[in-house]
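Why should sequence recovery work at all? Because a backbone constrains its sequence more than one might expect. Tight turns favour small or flexible residues, buried strands favour hydrophobic ones, and helices have their own preferences. The token representation captures these environments compactly. In the example below, the structure is given first.
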């Protein structure tokens, strides 16, 4: 399999590694939105967030929080975005699940909120119904 993130995990491709444990690795994105743009990656080859095994998930998101805090404090950022592109339609280019942490500064030019839509009467409820139908049973 030809996966650049597996190759980083296996030390075949060099990367600026920020953090690593038995389940998760984190390194700087090679083409950052801002310096310090960091990726957090489960050490299991899963194509996207939906296919990450449960035992990796909680560690993944715990580390997203820890590393976000370190990125913000280390770089003096004013804020940060956490995002994950899943599927080509969402802009995913590396098909090994990863979470982006992007430090933000008051002066930076990026705008993530473009072309926001509006619900007409009843559409919000209908949309909610479509999603709720596919949720797993609620845990107590
Ligand atoms: P996606 O577009 O799938 O959400 O994000 C993939 C990210 O991986 C991109 O932001 C891209 O810059 C980064 N990337 C791709 N190849 C490499 C690489 O070899 N090393 C590092 N550090 N980042 C990479
Ligand atoms: Zn992989």
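From this structural description, the recovered sequence reads:
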């Amino acid at each position: 399999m030809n996966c650049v993130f597996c190759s980083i995990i296996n030390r075949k491709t060099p990367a600026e590694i920020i953090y690593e444990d038995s389940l998760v690795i984190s390194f700087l994105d090679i083409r950052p939105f801002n310096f310090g743009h960091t990726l957090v990656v489960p050490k299991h080859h899963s194509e996207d967030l939906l296919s990450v095994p449960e035992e990796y998930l909680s560690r993944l998101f715990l580390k997203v929080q820890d590393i976000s805090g370190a990125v913000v404090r280390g770089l003096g950022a004013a804020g940060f975005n956490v995002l994950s592109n899943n599927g080509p339609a969402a802009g995913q280019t590396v098909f090994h699940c990863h979470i982006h942490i992007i430090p933000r500064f008051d002066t930076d030019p990026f705008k993530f909120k473009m072309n926001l839509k509006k619900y007409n009467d009843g559409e919000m409820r209908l949309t909610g119904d479509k999603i709720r139908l596919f949720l797993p049973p609620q845990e107590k």
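A few observations help interpret the result. The radius of gyration is 17 Å.
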